[in-house]
Write the structure tokens for this entry.
Amino acid sequence: MKELKDYIKLHGKVANSSTLKVDSFINHQIDPKLMMAIGEEFKKRFQDKNINKVLTIEASGIAIGLATAFAFNVPLVFAKKKKPSTMNDMYNATVYSFTKKESYNVCVSKEFLNENDKVLVVDDFLAMGNALVGLKEILNEAGAEFVGAGIVIEKGFQEGGKFLRENGIHLESLAIIDSLENNTIKFKD
């Protein structure tokens, strides 16, 4: 997605050879026009999948999920990182965060996912694929269909995308970073 790559070139900051900061427009401060364009792009790429729900993990995925759900005119469901006291019957999975270097349990109320759902999973980054694997476990437990994953930025130099594609997941990444070496952002063509 050219518009996204232009934003990354202009506003992205390389923190180190494995970390790209996009907090000025995607996951801390959010550029609403870009976010809505991201949602529309995911709709174009998955429009033939009869999606009736979008799923993500709080917090960084929520804006992406909302823009995508809006484009599809379907509900957004997000996995919570802490079980609310009001949630009793739920699906759970353990997810390891590459960025935070810790594991956490995510949960979704059974009220919001079931065997009739065709679900698109979205997230801001894909590194090793742990978040998507955890969300896939939740969808499997719910009996819902995991129709694909929409990723805003894939770290192509890490194994997540390769692993997911080799395991038959329809994965669409809007920008794939080939390298962050020498403080330079290089995209995969």
